[in-house]
Design goal:
Blueprint: H1 36-55, H2 61-68, H3 76-91, E1 105-112, E2 123-130, E3 133-141, H4 149-173, E4 182-186, H5 189-196, H6 213-219, E5 223-227, H7 244-255
Parallel strand pairs: 1-4, 4-5
Antiparallel strand pairs: 1-2, 2-3
Helix pairs in contact: 1-2, 1-3, 4-5
């Protein structure tokens, strides 16, 4: 797998994507556009990483989501970043998810407001736990531009709430009923206040009605919201590249190791 993208020699790497490197799409006039074999190799590398990022390696989720945005016109800098993910994967083969014990269903939700420098869309990220074990995670660019941090967090919270309701129903079908509402931890108090008191004023009336689903779930006691500090919000690693110390700390919470 590594040889197919030229990874015969690979230096150890601490994070799957370098937070100091800002990747940009190639312009229409870039002479590197049109190399079909290069693009095929890039897509082949991405395909090899999508499965672990979705099923067993939550620490790869943001990196693969981000690199997939350049799949139409990849350049050497994008291929280099892709190779770094393979480096990281090879250096962390000892890590994995361990399923143990039982517990309540809870989640972490976060967003990175206007992080895309091209279209200014935010990134939604969430992770759900059953007890101490992560069972689902998500990293995706939001479809519309949020006008504030609160709105971006609120849109991310709506996605997390939908996942919470689905997991509650799945758990019930598997014979593991959830008798208490799902706790969702977020690090934005404005979004929490707005959810508890959705006043439709000039700053919020434009928010798509589908996102107000979270208010209904909160009122019916299907979910409850708890505040957590940004540095303790595990979903942060699904919204942006992090520096090594913070990434390793949050990865420890996800994989059960430090």
């Amino acid at each position: 797998m590594l040889k197919s993208v030229g990874m015969s020699n690979c230096n150890p790497i601490a994070t799957p994507i370098d937070p100091n490197v800002k990747l940009m799409p190639l312009t229409d006039s870039d002479p590197r556009i049109g190399n079909a074999k290069f693009r095929c190799d890039y897509l082949s590398g991405l395909r090899k990483l999508i499965y672990p990022a979705v099923t067993t390696c939550p620490d790869l989720a943001y990196a693969i989501q981000h690199l997939s945005q350049f799949s139409i016109r990849p350049g050497p800098e994008h291929m280099s970043a892709l190779k770094c993910v393979f480096c990281y994967l090879r250096e962390t083969t000892n890590l994995g998810l361990t399923f143990r014990g039982t517990g309540d269903l809870h989640m972490y939700s976060d967003s990175n407001w206007a992080s895309d420098t091209i279209d200014r869309c935010s990134i939604t990220g969430y992770i759900s736990y059953f007890g101490s074990v992560p069972i689902s995670w998500f990293s995706q660019k939001q479809p519309t531009v949020a006008l504030s941090t609160m709105e971006a967090e609120y849109m991310a919270l709506a996605k997390a709430t939908c996942e919470a309701i689905w997991l509650q129903k799945l758990s019930s079908e598997l014979g593991i009923p959830t008798n208490s509402p799902t706790t969702i931890f977020i690090d934005n108090q404005s979004a929490m206040h707005f959810t508890e008191n959705p006043v439709f004023h000039a700053c919020s009336k434009h928010i798509d009605i589908c996102h107000h689903f979270v208010c209904e779930c909160l009122a019916s006691n299907k979910v409850i919201l708890n505040y957590c500090a940004s540095e303790e919000n595990v979903a942060d690693m699904f919204t942006k590249p992090l520096a090594k110390p913070q990434f390793i700390t949050l990865r420890g919470h996800v994989l059960g190791v430090v």
